[in-house]
Amino acid sequence: MNTLFAAVRAVHYASAMLMMGELVFALAISGPVLRSNRMVREPGSGEDDGTRRRLSWIVRWSVVASLASAVAWLVIVAMIMSGLPLGEALKPDTLERVLGDTMFGRIWMVRLGVLVAFSAALNGIRESVASLAAHDPRGRHARTGRRVSRRTGIVRPRVRRGQWARGRRGHRIGCRAPPRRGAWLGALPALVFLLGRAPATPIIVGVTRRFSALGMCCVALLAASGVVNAWHLVGSVPALLGTGYGRLLLAKVTLFVAMVVLAAANRWYHAVHLAAGDRDAAGKLRRNAILEIVAGGGILVVVGFLGISVPAVHHH
To answer: Tens digit of pLDDT for each residue in 259-290?
Structure first.
């Protein structure tokens, strides 16, 4: 049951982060670069480089995965809290007590409402990003073939995610998934996709700079919040090294450090070479971004298990 619970949590976090990251990338990273170069598709144009279809497909299935994993999460928590088998836990009175009488249930309903509202607005969101995604990957205007400039800017998008409640016996059956990680990790697949389609253009240079700014901001916030949170849940070095929770936390920190090293190499080395005209740098950027995704996936798995483990500070 613990493994299944951790897997459901990991899927829920991953789908939510991917959905959020894709929209952040389209609206706040690649979108401003395209707008600054006047690369908006004209109405009625039949051209499509696949970016819009990809965004629509990923966001749609991310919503489906988030809804399915949220329902599975509720069922598992109902079984844990009630101590009943699956058939009994699914009865309306059991679910009503979980949803109405626990903090987890109330927050779960709020999150589900937000997700349903987002799903209803999905068509409008896709249309709003369509003009941002519509461009020729070679860096030319879709209609005129005009070359683009290298102007870029820096933004720090504000992204929020919900908080998870405490379960029975005072231990958490959910945990906080940092919004900064969602913006950073969730946007990495979009960056990998773009680097694969347009390995060396002014657009890629601009997008890479903006993404690096986002990454550095996320790293600083995650590092600061992670130290405070870890100390609160672990309490001491012996507890960090001598408990299962502490060892899981160390694994999470190790994977996070690996992501930081890869992101720093991209920001301070490969992106600089790309801006200087080194076409091979795009491939190295893409390779490191893929490795960051792998490390980030490992973090999500660890987070899934951390949320169902007793914090080290409670060990005596």
So the answer is: 989 988 998 999 999 888 888 899 999 999 99
Task: With respect to residue 165, please indicate whether it lies within any of the assigned structural domains.
Answer: no
**CB atoms < 10 A from the CB of 194, how many?**
24
Burial (CB count within 10 angstroms: exposed 0-12, middle 13-18, buried 19+), residue 316: exposed
CB atoms within 10 A of CB 122: 15
Distances (CA, A) of 111 to 121, 141, 297: 15, 41, 22
- Determine the structural domain holding residue 191 and report its residue range: 2-148+174-314
The rounded distance, in Å, linking the Cα atoms of 77 and 160 is: 24
Each residue of 108-135: pLDDT tens digit?
A: 999 888 888 877 766 665 555 555 444 4
Whole-angstrom Cα distance, residue 222 to residue 202?
A: 30
Contacts for 34-39: CB closer than 8 Å, 24+ residues apart = 34/132, 34/133, 34/134, 34/135, 34/203, 35/132, 36/149, 36/151, 36/152, 36/153, 36/206, 37/148, 37/149, 37/151, 37/202, 37/203, 38/141, 39/134, 39/135, 39/136, 39/141, 39/142, 39/148, 39/203
Nearest one of 3, 11, 292 to 177, comparing CA atoms: 11
Q: What's the CA gap between 177 and 70, in Å, rounded?
A: 14
Domain count, the chain: 1
Give Cα 129 distance to the centre of its chain. Answer: 18
> Is residue 169 assigned to a domain?
no
Among residues 252, 253, 281, which one has the least CA distance to residue 267?
281
Q: Which two three-digit tokens encode residue 76?
A: 């598992």
Asked if residue 168 belongs to a domain, the reply is no
Residue 68 domain-assigned?
A: yes
**Average pLDDT, rounded, for the chain:** 76
- Contact yes or no for 306/175 (Cβ under 8 A): yes
Neighbours of 72 (CB within 10 A): 17
Both structure tokens of 61: 């299935």
Closest CA to 273 of 286, 284, 289: 284
Question: Considering the entire predicted model, what is its pTM?
Answer: 0.74
| Residues 182/18, Cβ–Cβ less than 8 Å | no
